[in-house]
Fold these 3 entries.
Entry 1:
Amino acid sequence: MYDLSLPWWAYALMGAGLVVFIGMIAVSVRRNHGVKRSLFASPYTLWMIIFTVLPCILVAYYAFTDANGAFTLENFLNFWDSNHTKNQLYASMGEAAAAYITRGTVNVDTLVYSLWMAFLCTMICLLLGYPAALFMADRRMKIGPTIVILFIIPMWMNFLLRTIAWMSILEDQGLINQLLHFLGFDGVKLMYNSGAVLLGMVYNFLPFMVFPVYTSLSKLDPKLGEAAQDLGCNEWKTFTRVTAPLSLPGVISGITMVFMPSVTTFFIPRILGGGNTMMFGDLIESKFLTEGNWNVGSALSMIMMVLILISLGILRKFDPEGEGGGIA
Amino acid sequence: MKKTGLFFKKFYLGIILFFLYIPIVVMVIQSFNAGKSRAKWEGFSFRWYAELFQDRSIMQALQITIAVAVIAAVIATILGTLAAIGIYAMKKRSQSMMMTLTNIPMTMPDIVTGISLMLLFLFTKVERGFVTMVMAHITFNTPYVILSVMPKLKQMNKHSYEAALDLGATPTYALTHVIIPEIRQGIVTGAMLAFTLSLDDFTISYFTTSPLVQNLSTLIYSKARIGIDPTLNALSTLMFVALLVLLVIVNRRTADNAA
Amino acid sequence: MMEQEHLIDLKGICKEYDGTQVLKDINLYVRKKEFVTLLGPSGCGKTTTLRIIGGFEYPTSGEVYFEGKEISALPPYKRRVNTVFQKYALFPHLNVRDNIAFGLKLKKVPKSEINKKVDRMLDLVNLSGYGKRHVDQLSGGQQQRIAIARALVNEPEVLLLDEPLGALDLKLRKEMQLELKNMQQQLGITFIYVTHDQEEALTMSDTIVVMRDGKILQIGDPKRIYDEPANAFVADFIGESNILRGTMIKDELVHFAGHDFVCVDSGFGENAPVDVVIRPEDIMIVGEDIGQLTGTVQSVLFKGVHYEMMVSTGEVTFKVHSTTMQPQGSKVGINIVPFNIHIMKPMQEEAPSDV
């Protein structure tokens, strides 16, 4: 299983890289009587060029070419034409397969649905997470750091398994329905709909809202609150006029950290949505792996990247220093 | 009045935590269920724990997961620490260029990172498998190492390195005996972060490996459609307990060191 | 001075960063056991000069000589100089003793000798018994002493100090000035000291090098620098002074403030524009009727040892230091003896404002 074989040129490339790096250091030692420290970054730079810049260029290349490698804008233009995509699928894969793949939705619908779900997820996380962070930062309780650890511990369990565990709770024979039956009620359908997907998303991404908000709130000088009260604010006004505005950087970075993975998630809708819902991540994945259409898949990836960059740009406006910076 | 406020706050946090823990509790309980059904409790048993060690595909996935995480974390830590030191020594402009390069994979959604790497491997006709998965993990881990080490470098007195040279240290000695010890905490944090991220990664692994070489996440994913059997629950319960023990030990040690 | 007595020689040192010249043709020598201070406002190039001597920067052009041998390209760890850094740069992961022993361990000095030397150093800086302490448990003043001990224990030929007292409060700074000067005389080591504090420079130095905009304006002992500043900038930077526009009528006769004064300078030519510098304590307040000039006292400030009065003659206002006070508004006479009138070429000609 540890098959380490790579094409011969890959080894040649690595060897050449190593020789060049050592050579550069040797030259710099000669010239400067010491290693120039900025050279230390060169293996990383090379690595990033091969494994980040080059792949991005490849995505762009496939997005702007057709199956024969000729330049085209069709991959993007067709994005807006739902019927075109659908007809193409019918033609290429037969009716049954196409029905399975598209699941009744196509590009624009999927995009709008993904954005809407991500928006809902972000809002719910904010509504649930902000009070939690605020209460954790309450100095009288001294429990903030403990709660942070309690938030982190569940993340050690494989997130796929945690999501699957929700199935046992939500499904027709699951915990909630068993409880309802036991109490004499009729069962409810909880799985395989947008609500279940949303629940799974909020469950997975809530900590990413709580952490940055908590960090920015706990950094606040408690004297600020005292000063506000001294100047005549009651507790509510202290919150709305002082605490809330000052926690804005944390909120912004929380929104970023929840929104981005929400738009692109493709595992949660598969499990909890059971194929009835499709998000943009699923669409991209199926273009590549089910249909094998790299060109359209790459175009979709680029559209998603552009959307994310735009939203990041907008969010950056509110937090130019990037000081809300979350995880660390 | 004040007291009820505090009670309400604790109650709220309790509910949120309940929400976070309930699937985990369900998983742990299922791992001790004698039957295979997710819904019916058929009695307490260690059956799945016994089966776990018999299951070759799970044991292999575990092995691969740990091997990938360790190798990727070690290489990413070396690469990232060197890079951080290098970037720190650069002039303003190249510094901000390098930080932009570092931020690219962090802003990119996992799925795009995974797909772009998959395209790279397909384009260059490198067969996907263990090595490509390690490469992909190094790629997304290294920026996190840099971001953990960088602040420590910035906190360092900027003359520390020169002071060592001044006292007769060669650049190599100054690096290993002054700079590295001073940023050690950042390096350790970065390494732990890299290890954890790699352990838990699904999306990027999914696109950069072959069905023959699976880590736990991709294995779980491939089984999710057929139905998860409780052996996986048993496994993650064990891993969870192991990590908890590790946390307690680490906490003890840091507490001892601080005293 | 004969060449062999020079310990360090800087010849034609220029330094450029990204196209900006920070040092322009620096020529300087330092003798054995001398206490030399590089003095100037921030950005004048004094720290860069020090770093070139220390080996942390390499000159764009020009050479550095150490005992007559060129060392321009030698890295810091091969030079027989040690540095006390701004903000000390003590190694936070080592305790006090290991910080001081750092250089000796690198030289593979035997353990017993290291211990002996470190103890002697701790003694010298009055911190014996602090060896096991962690460096961040020390006060600023103590860290300062450790930084000095860490450098001195290597018995360098030259000790470079980059604003070492900058972070200390006034009282501690004065104490450390004396201590440093004593240490230097006791140990017989050459000190090159960088500061922007003119008082510090005057107190401690054998030689002061006044710098501005990457150039050396004047080199000399403190008394000479104070009494005979080379130009108006030096006069203004070192101590307080009245700087006036004037005209040299002929040798030993200068016109300023609407009056002709006899002076001792010559060689400026006839009717040449000059800068006239007069120290506030060199202006004598006399009776209104016997003064060369007359004026009105505009304001009086008590400064501890003396009074500072602003006296306006109508044409110019003089700052005067005197131990006797004249009330505000009173008419006084002003006398200046020829010896205390310093004539210098106008600044514009000497320092082109291309920076």
Entry 2:
Amino acid sequence: MRDSAKAVTGSSRRTILKFTAALAAGCALPAFHRRAFAQPASIKVGFPVPLTGPYGSEAADQVRCAQLAIEDFNKAGGLNGRLAELLVRDDKLNAAEAVTRTLELIEKDKVDMIVGSLSGAVLLAVNEACKARGVPYNGLSISDRINEAKDFGPTTYHEGLAPHLSVGALGRYAFAGSSKKVAYLIADYEFGYEMRRAFQSVAEQTGAQTVAEIKHPLGMQDFSSLFPKIISAKPDVLCVLNFGRDQLNVLKQASEFGLKERMSIVVGALSTTQRIAGGADAYAGVIGASNYYWAAETKFASAKAFNAAYAAKYKGGVPSDYGSYGYGGVRSMLELARKAGGVGAAALADAASTGFKFDLYKGPQEIRACDHQSIQAVFILKSKAEAEMKGPNDTFEIVSIVQGDESKLRSCAELGHKA
Amino acid sequence: MKSTAVATPSMWERMDPRRLMGGVSQHRVLASAAVLAVLPLLVPYPALAINVLIYGLFAAGFNLVFGYTGLLSLGHAALFGTGAYGCGIAIAVLGLPWYAAILVGLVFSTVSAALIGGLAIRTRGVYFGMVTLALAQCLYFLFYQWVSVTGGESGLRGVMVPSIDIGPIHLDLFDPVQKYYFLLAFVVLALMAFSRILDSPFGAVIEGIRENENRARASGYNVWFLKWMSFVLSGLFCGLAGALNAIHLGVVSIDSLFYTTSGTVVMMVLLGGMGTFFGPFVGAAAFLSLEDITANWTSHWQLIAGLVFIACVRFFPRGIWGSILARLRA
Amino acid sequence: MTEIPFDLIALQVLTGLALGCIYVLVATGLTLIFGLLNIVNFAHGAFYAAGAYLGVFAFTYTGNFWLSLVAVPFGMALIGLPTERFLLRPVYGRDPSYPLLLTFGLGYVIVELIRIAFGTDGIPFNAPAALKGSLFFGDIAFPRYRLFVMAFTAALLAGLWFLIEKTSFGLIIRAGARNPEIVSVLGVDTSRVWMLIFALGTAVAGVAGFLAAPMRGVIPEMGVTVLIEAFVITVVGGMGSLPGAVIAGLSMGVVVSLTSYFAADYSNVVMFAIMAAVLLVRPQGLLGRPEFAR
């Protein structure tokens, strides 16, 4: 390997020097650039989301919606004239990168709050960094763990659904009727286990009986080897408790192996982007829980206004479920700041401690005092077959919208909170 | 590289780059420490400077095996990751003080290095790369499944070291600048050790193995043992980098053990200059800055990173620092 | 433990064989390139993804699965030829880690280009109507498409075997792999042979990707796991050995499938465990040439 290095010519040496100089200039430039444009008076909202990687388009829609939230807040006068500004960063779906970006936002940009995340590992890591430094953080991804006393801190907020709430609603729908036989296919990580636990508590209430329970490694390409066991257990319902590419592959292969004809399929979390990537055939008839679907505009005035503002700003289209988390997450924190009369972590926690109710885009929501969980409606959706779709955005049918209330969450005591 | 000039050199002669290089390379630890000491002033934010420091040390440890001994390991994530987990588990689960935790991290990474090295050094060439990759993935799965201790996919949280008291000195580790210089102290110590290793007879022999393994064997050296020793020492440096990273971030993510981390460190060393003392730090700085800058322009930064890497391997196999050194010495 | 019915085990084995065929298909291109060019192709996963996207792209124009299946290898060859000529050929004769690192970088670039051209989300793609549905063996149903993939793999391997063992081109390949100097002294343009071999390996990777498309999602990262799996198969089978890849691929498919039945969450660990074990007992792999390992 060493000999080859001797072949470096004079011209390439010059190129190296130029390259090095450009790199050095590049290093110094952003520092200057960012400082020159910072506005000291504004409320700075850091927004680290995974713009690169498999969930790039979910993250891009979260940014679009978050920008809309900032705009709506500023239009309404801001916080006594103090306007908000969004600082978007790419967390690359990697916990270490997300913490680095969080430290950048806190230490250099001096943000007032951070909103974001699309995976459980990133959510918990960013929360840890924000908690230690006393910066308010509103997590957007689905998690039960973050509400528990061990990970929760006074600066923690959680706009994302708690599986106990969303899967609870889904399970009560899917397990209704005489005692159903249920098979579970569970992704081998926190997200899967949380969903499984949530289904379990519903199963105990409804008398559903577990006939098979299979854990699969994350990122599995081919699930066909798991199917014989599922088929032979003869379940009425198959609960698929994974996300993203894994979910897409399971549903594609389940259709291929004719599982859909033998049982109904329920997924713990349904997302528009995954449905579009997987295609109507793979998802047809699948039932799942979600935080938002645009067709709710016929039920809620706030949803109608949100959809209209989105379409106006981005020239058509509808906000996605994950995208709307970006809106709700940013807007609710800013509205909380309005209530608190400031953006300090203590002031926000104080304002949240008396309960905070609002309706920003999906009907009534509330921040629970003990764990700052957003109590919200759960959408039970059914994926449409190609023939039933009236347009490219007409992907789901709303089976029901289950309004959230305190009784459907795990109790504060159960989570380990004192109050 | 000792100067043989007898007459007192004029000022211009003193400014001669070759002469300067000769002087600097005699004091490479000091020179490296000086550059790293001013690094926070050069990069846009402190967390990036800390990453350069940590990944630079990681790359330096990898360079011992890759650049100096001539073994392309594709499993170095295992050494970095176990160092991070060892330190993290000691703090978050066992509640040990930070200095003991760093030691635990070093024990974890050194044991992993001894095991992986011991098994992989039986093979050669690209096979060595594949075996290290496979064994590192085995460790990844092990730590992934060991949820009760490592937190599994969710990562290990609670690796908090808010402040440190050493005698009369009180350091606030939530202050990024204090944290930087605290970590720098460890990196400088590591570089001193690294320099000593390179200057020792052992350092000369591993470079001999890289150049011609058969000749080294014919000269009566136990090549297997020397390669293994190099791998284990590498584990010490990479594990220290991992342990410092755990303290820096306050969390340990399972990604630190994933094979992509091994790929990153290969890229850094090649970008900086394999087989050079300071090259890994230059490579880490170049890689991380490139990523930081391009990620602000476009979500397709991987395209740019990939192209730069290809160009580097294809046209500048000496890397940035290696090419600069070659020019100055020419 | 309750008794497991025989037909269930039979189905599990059949599923494993079908899975193994995909492993074999992916490992074939990799082992071909390694065996003849001594290149560890880290861009293999990216080529696999590129093949799937190329096929789906061709399908949107032709609307015909079979035409697209024919188009993929030719399209892939157009990627493979310049890759070998301009990226890899200049580093022949240097340390084998050079092509490894170059293809590693190339993999990044290809995946990112796919994201730019086709988006990050993936594209839905289904099996052709003729291959939809299942065949029934008594009580057991098995998808037609997977049976087709098994048959296709067998045909492809037979074709490759014929090409390498029975044609004059194959004779040059085999001779060139043993001793390139002698072959070029005899007046054969070896550089063109290497280029064609690399293109062939790329084409096989692309076809594997396209065949996988109706079973798995067509997404930019689809090659990542596959690359790792293909490495494991090639190393276990013996790098550069085509029969080794076939034996290792099929048996690994069955092992993974049976592990899935008893402990599904360990189904990917088992691959690496077997690989580590094989490397300890027999570093060159099942049918590998020992000089690679020592």
Entry 3:
Amino acid sequence: MAEDYILELKGITKIFPGVKALNNVQFQLKRGEVHALMGENGAGKSTFIKVITGVHAAEEGEMFLNGKKVRFKGPRDAQAAGIAAVYQHPTSYPELSVTENIFMGHEIRKFGMIQWNVMNQEAQKLLDRLDADFSPTEEMGALSVAQQQMVEIAKALSTKAKIIILDEPTAALTQSESEKLYRIVDQLKEEGVSIIFISHRFEDMYRLASRVTVFRDSQYIGTYDVDGITNADLIKAMVGREITDMYPKPDVKIGKEIFRIEGMTRTGYFKDVSLNVHAGEIVGLSGLVGAGRTEVMESVCGITKPNAGKVYLDGKQCKIRQPLDAMKEGIILLPEDRQKEGLILNWGLGQNVTLPIQSELAHSGFNDTAAEKKVAKQYLEEVDTKAVSIYDPASSLSGGNQQKVVVAKALAQKNMKVVIMDEPTKGVDVGAKAEIYAIMGELAKKGYGIIMISSEMPEIIGMCDRIYVMCKGRITGCLNRNEATQESILQLSMEKGNTKKEVAQG
Amino acid sequence: MKQKSVLKQITKSREFSLVIVLIVLCVVATILNPSFISPTNIAQIFRNNALTMVMSVGMLCVLLTGGIDISVASILAFSGMVVGMLLKYKVLENTLLLFVIGSVIGIVCGLLNGLIISKGNVAPIISTMGFMYIWRGLAYVISNNQWASGADVVGYSDFGADGAVGPYIIIAVVFIAGFIILKWTKVGRKIYAVGSNAEAARVSGINVDGVLIYTYVIMGFLSGLCGALSVSIYASAQPNMQYGLEMDIIASCVIGGVSMSGGRGSVVGTFLGALILALITRALPLVGIDAIAQNMVKGILILAVVVLNVVTQRMMDRANLERREM
Amino acid sequence: MAGKSGREISITSNKSALSRVLSWEGALVLIFIAVNILGVILSENYTAANVLRQMPRYLAEIFILFPMGYILILADIDISVGSIVCLSATMACFAGNAGLPFPVVILVCLLVGLICGAINGAILAKFTELPSMIVTLATQIIFRGIAEMSMGSGGTVSYTNSADLIPLTTMVGPFPISFFGVVIAAVIFIVVLSKTTFGRKLYAIGSNKTAAYYAGIKVEKIRFIVFSLAGLMSGFCALVLLSVLFSANTTTGQGFEMEVIAMAVFGGIATTGGKGNLVGGFIAAFIIVCLRVALGLINMNTQLILVIIGLMLIIAVLMPGISQRIKTMKKMAKQS
């Protein structure tokens, strides 16, 4: 054998009822390397991981571990073979202790009895190795996402895994937490562990991986050396075409102020937040995950109750007690979690679009289905949704098209004045992203006020006229389009000790 | 870091606060009636609540998985009725054998619940509601409008008679076994894992369906066992025996701090919960509340405890938020 | 006006979904006919006139079926309805025996039901963290406990001015008047569910509560209304029951929650929420009513009838899973 592959998969095909989730894909992992696995959402990465870890059984294909052919019947077999996965959403047991989360399934036992003391000590050792700042007897549910992820890694280590798979580990982490994770991965690499790394962030890949494999549309596209491939080539491999103008920000004449919030405060989430938006303006709200951006906007829209604060629309103060009030005023929220908050997945697209306006279309409480169909068709076509009929269930669409349906739902509310988009491109593949930016541009041209919450620096710099930055529940600054850079935003996002004191005094 | 240790303290102190409630109850009852804490009275309390206590361990397991079983009293009645009829028509008189038969009936009933809930993907409340009427109805059917009286079960009833150690042994064995299994064995921890996060359990290689099945089998087994025990303690078997007992059992668990959404609860807490409920029902007449109002009191107790849980959780959340730095 | 890419989105539904729904209701009608044939075979007294005369005794529960359908569509459950029936009937008896005029008695009966339902609804709306199962489990024993207490040690109370109740038992042609009550309620509840914004909101909440809330639906208000409605309809049920039994006791209404849930599930409503309609439930209700009349005519033990209905519930809830499994097996077979 020319190369020393610890793991090799050939011709893997996985069929779910109705779809080929993986079509004849291959993959090679060298001993002791960090290998990035990239591709758009729905490209088959997660399914592939689940084939490796034995959660799914592939219909066709072979898998070699240390050159020997293996066939896993379940997750247990993979675990025994030294393969461990840290999934995208920490798959933890919130009510149980850290120790138990680490050792679930391979408890240390004597005469069939679980040895809690021994396990706690072992867990402490693992946590020390990862430089963790919490104790093994703490309850998992009380930890932060980053800490929970650390527990998951400790769990992988506890199984003495030789191959560790990290599925989008940085998605929910802040910058500094990501840095910590990078260090852990480096350390594991030095200890001789081979790592497969799935991520949407190019940053992760450049920082960690030596090689990258790209999947597209359930198929294997290629494997490249990270040093030898450009950003553009990689995007082309992932999307299948070149994207020339990613951020089609139109030149719009900014009108008068239409929307303003003052002194919004909700105990424990955010404090004294004020901002304003003009007609035709795209305003960004940036900051690290957990800075309170989503929480502010949810309070503005009546989803949660703020402790203090005023909302003005066209100079008039409006009273917002529940979501319906905000919608009646014309403040429309496109929530962050499309699948949970934005759409009813098992409903058809049409009814999803008309859900907020069904009462307006109805005659004395009776639904006007003919009018609803017309409205739904009109707006779904306006945002160019890839769907056959308005009866297609929302669950059948890709992330990008689901987002378009959410946009159509907002557009159908005729009194819309301000639209708040919370992470509109999260989980949306590169191709559909560009389309959503185009829609944002259109909306700005029509004179709506737009607020975009985003964690992705390039899109916020590329699309926004002004950018507010939040840190720990407060607005720490507002940057104009010409002064916004990754560095300036990051600096405001991570305001340190002394400035905080100044704010507290003032 | 601080907020976590507070959270831990409060969850840890659940049992502690239950002990305090227990002590307060005893003190109040003793003031009202000085002979309340006499050995005979305590022994009576345990004997009268033996069924609730034993079955609450099974209910704890079921609630830990995030399920519920309201068919337990009917399983008890069906098993008890079978035992009673076997005795009445002198088919069998061996006490041990009758207990085994009762338990096996319970296991079969539990297995059916487990299979339908796990393999058939049916909500536990729906499945057990159906069986609640099925087993109770069958208890009536096999009784054929007869009932086993004290004379029919003479000899058999010695095991659970007033002063006999039988019921106490069963209570002790079940609680100790439950404690060991749930705390120190893989079988027990899997129940917690499934209730805490079934999807994670599945991914980490736990056979979730299997865990659900044996959980309901444990519940069924204890219900069947209690069917036989009930006939022995009360020296009779009627089809309507222990009607509504499931409420006492669920109330014991809820008072003992078992979460209705799964994953949280302990054997010690359940024991204390059952004991508190037993003391309250025993003490009610002392404060002039009719026996007829007992059911209502239990209902109010369940409601009050679950509402209290929500309120304290909200208060804790708020306190944590206020402590958060900004 | 098509989109930029000129892609058109069709607004005509594909018929197959509709025909599938129809086929289930069609099957229910067939079962209904089968049950009637069974009745004729079992007893020579099973005639149309007899069935209609016997019906009011069993019709009462159907009043609760409709709001229970709503509750199940919301992905909630209410197991306190049987106890509400008991309490309403008990209070109506006391009101009547105290010499109150009959219209006031009716009002008392309905009002008690409404209040009980509103209590359930208010607790659930106020403490959203609590599952409806545990709340109604507790109120189930509380409501029945209140009835037990007011009945005292006898455990029963009869309606002394039984003449009052005669108007409720009049026959209109061959039909008992309560039959019309059920039909009117059915029409109202079915139309509201399928044709109005309120009905659509129920489905939205049952399918995805969070998304419904974000779309401006007042989730807690609607849950409150629906649970109150269940209480009110339990009051109606109690009234019809009184007109047949002339008394209430501690076991009045026992098992009603199971029977109406069985009817709803049998009629195609999923207990997981957001799915099904009441037309199927309405047919299923009459299947059960006719079955009970037939089994009653051959003097079958009432407990055995409960066993049969329990089995029907279990089979009905297992059905979607089984048909799903068969479908995927067929699909797999086709693919390979």
